[in-house]
User: What shape does this take?
Amino acid sequence: MNKQPFLPGLAALLAGPALAAGAVELELGHFDLAHCREVQWKSNGSTSPIFRYGTQTIIVHAMIDGPNINLESRLSVVRECANLVSSRIGMSSLAWNPARSNDLFRASLLRCLDERNYPDEIFTIALKTEDHCQ
Assistant: This one.
């Protein structure tokens, strides 16, 4: 019996579930705040500060991890539920306190996915923010 074809097949079978898992990062939206100030230093013989003012924007992302989540059929359902949940909670709540909002977002997202008969388990859900001064 030739064992060569069997070994790659067994390796693919064992590695399959591990390779199927992946994380996605979805941008949920942004929240604009009052003006912000950035300091830039100008050096023309002596160093002096230059103040620039702009709009401060907080961008909210959801990091979601689970098997097969990168498949378009799964990702579209996850994206739809994430957008629905973030609009219900409100971008200001998500942007101001993602640590506190994370439990509410997670429970609401899992409920939404369950209502749509999402076939796979979701391992982790975490909110992340980025702060930009434009």
Notes: The CA atoms of residues 64 and 125 lie 5 Å apart.
